[in-house]
Amino acid sequence: MVLAVAAYLGIPKALARLEPSAARQRNNHLTADLPLAVDLLAACLRAGRLPQQALTTVATAIPGPLADLFTEVAHHLALGADPADAWSHLRTEPACVPFARAIDRSLRSGAPLSKTLEHLADDTRQAHHHAADQQARAIESRTALPLGLCFLPAFVLLSIVPTIADVLIPYLSH
């Protein structure tokens, strides 16, 4: 039983430690910043800015690892790189893969990039909320057992011991 409780509490922590904390932080920043960045990028494109100008504008508005990626893509676009190759730099980050896929689809189909990005921002935001909800539910289920174990001694002392004492006192007094 003790081993099961230790495994139940220790396995998620051990799995979380497998990924380096710097990589986990970077991925968390990218995941959190992506919906807003994509919204801003779509707004810039709707306003008539070129993709490299829009990327530079968004990179200055949102600091962090996403700004570095956007600056790199804008730099490649400004140097005249093939758009598909320039945008492919986003595929290096797992959080940006759906974004890179949406860009690829838009480039191949000729669909307006701003509409694609608007849909992507909504989808990314929903996925982020869903992931946060799943984390909250996981915490809820992981805390149920320890809390139950904390209340068990109080339950025994306040309900079971007095009941047993009431039953045994008449027999012990004779």
Describe this structure in words.
The protein has 174 residues and is an all-alpha fold. It has one domain (16-137): Receptor-associated Protein, CATH 1.20.81. Helices cover 84% and strands 0% of the residues. The chain has helices at residues 2-18, 21-46, 51-61, 65-78, 83-87, 97-109, 113-173. It is rod-shaped. InterPro entries: T2SS_GspF_dom (IPR018076). This is Type II secretion system protein. Keywords: Cell membrane, Membrane, Transmembrane, Transmembrane helix.
Please describe the structure with a list of short key phrases separated by commas or semicolons.
7 helices, membrane, transmembrane helix, 84% helix, cell membrane, rod-shaped, mainly alpha, 174 residues, Receptor-associated Protein, transmembrane, single chain
Kindly report the CATH topology: Receptor-associated Protein
Mean of residue pLDDT values: 83
Poorly predicted runs of 5 or more residues: none
H/E element sequence:
HHHHHHH
DSSP strand count: 0
What amount of the residues lies in strands?
A: under 5%
| Tally of individual domains | 1
CATH architecture: Up-down Bundle
The amount of helix comes to over 70%
Shape call: rod-shaped
Q: Output the structural class.
A: mainly alpha
Q: In oligomeric terms, what are we looking at?
A: single chain
**CATH class annotation:** Mainly Alpha
What is the end-to-end distance? Answer: 40 Å
Biggest β-sheet, characterized?
A: none
Pfam families: T2SSF
Protein name: Type II secretion system protein
Transmembrane segments: 144-169
Keywords: Cell membrane, Membrane, Transmembrane, Transmembrane helix
